[in-house]
Write a structure and sequence with these properties.
single chain, Leucine-rich repeat, LRR (right-handed beta-alpha superhelix), 5-stranded parallel beta sheet, signal, Plant_RL_S/T_kinase, repeat
Length: 130
């Protein structure tokens, strides 16, 4: 089985396939600094053992799926420098009580922070500038 996928700084093009959700033993998914396009597949939410998710410095678009709130073991989430990811931060992020770090700067996000983020009792670091 696969626990870690680390494909940083590879300039990988194309979309992240929905089949990523089949890697159910994955604890670490690091796709930092590639050229991945398209929307973030909701199937990532099937990775219930995931503790680290880095989608930063890619070319994702659309909104952050509310299904990411199902990643109850996530400790660190990075989606910075995806300038076409818009909408709001899902209120479901308040369900991520294991999340200690969240880095979502340099995106096209709008609106207020969801008050539900106050439920993330493990949160010690958050970066949100545009």
């Amino acid at each position: 089985y696969v626990e870690t996928v680390n494909l940083t700084y590879r300039e990988l093009p194309g979309r992240l396939p929905k089949e990523v959700g089949l890697l159910t033993d994955l604890t670490n998914l690091n796709l930092w600094f590639n050229a991945i396009t398209g929307t973030i597949p909701t199937e990532i939410a099937l990775l219930s053992k995931l503790t680290y998710l880095s989608l930063g410095r890619n070319r994702f678009n659309g909104t952050m799926p509310t299904e990411l709130g199902l990643l109850r073991n996530i400790a660190e989430f990075d989606i910075y420098f995806n300038e076409e990811v818009g909408g709001t931060i899902p209120s479901e992020f308040g369900l991520l009580q294991s999340m200690g770090r969240i880095n979502i700067l340099a995106n096209a996000l709008e609106g207020s922070l969801p008050t539900e983020l106050g439920l993330c009792t493990s949160l010690t670091w958050m970066s949100l500038w545009k």
